[in-house]
Input
Amino acid sequence: MNADRLIIKNFRNIKEAVLEPCRGINIIYGENAQGKTNLLEAIWLFSGFKSFRGSKDRDLIKFGEDFFNLDLDFYGSGREQKARIITSAGQKKILLNSVPVTALSKLVGKFNCVVFSPSYLSVVKGNPGERRRFADTALCQIKPKYAKVLIDYNKIIMQRNSFLKNLKNKREDEEFLEIWDIKLAKKAAFIINQRLKYLNFLKESIYGIYSGLSGERESLEIFYNLRISPNKYKVLSEEIEEEELLSLIRNFRTSDILTGNTNIGAHRDDIGININGISAKSYGSQGQQRSAALALKLGEAEIIKNFTDEKPVILLDDVMSELDVNRQNYILNHIKDWQVFITCCEPSTVLRLFEGKTFNIKDGRIVN
Ligand SMILES: Nc1ncnc2c1ncn2[C@@H]1O[C@H](COP(=O)(O)OP(=O)(O)OP(=O)(O)O)[C@@H](O)[C@H]1O
Ligand SMILES: [Mg+2]
Output
């Protein structure tokens, strides 16, 4: 997978820009607040996912303008392709190879990329939802069926919750809850087992990456935490049966009805991340947390490569400045054969080790 040409109009602080990257290391450098992350964000949108900064569409349009336009020529699935995203207030038009597609999410899997940005540290430091999102996003890129089941699952949760609220108010018959529970257990088992499988793949690459990053001094461990009661998790080491999940869900019917919420299921699980045997979230140093998050991302890229037979594009926002020289060297060595976009203030941090194409960005313009 390669991004070969990006044309930007009215995106964030970038009025107009044309980026023609190389298929190796691309270094986007400049002072603070010039538009480096904005450039990565523009590339990222072609992955089919929302902005990695969690911004809304209208925030992406340059102040004072009423639309933005992004065009990407890329090489993927063995051919040259073109994608276009046009967003104006409240409206979005997306074209893939000149054919309109109905939603941004339809681009998922067409242009694969993996992004690491400082906000992504929340995968280690944040709440369980951040870690579930990590696994879900990664799985959606490699398994289209997963995305469909996830949408169905979220609908079932919403419908079951409204059924629970009606039950509490005696507007429904409790015996019909069983129907919802069976549906829920079926989809939840699929999601949980896919996530578990994914973590097993991930372990194969990230344990080595983390150990390399830490100069063989530390070890990383990840595991699936199944929620078995509203305040208790169990480490899941092998696939869960639908029946087992169904009985867990049944056990919490009373509290579900009381709260009007579904308290057990794939939407309540977590992923445990330990460094040297203790929780990275509770005890990890900043550097350890950063390294763990980075290892997860590089592992994600590795898995996409194995599943699709193509290396995804790697976007690294402001990653070098946070790492000591050994860790910087390890990262650069690890990614040197991928197409990478790295933002930094000073290009020499990268150029001292590898050749790369440089882009100096100033006030939203690429000046060289
Ligand atoms: N919709 C928008 N329209 C115009 N400018 C915007 C918009 N959204 C963000 N900006 C501006 O874009 C500028 C550059 O942002 P960006 O995050 O890309 O900087 P950066 O070069 O990555 O800086 P840093 O090194 O600090 O990370 C910011 O000053 C911000 O105010
Ligand atoms: Mg930035």
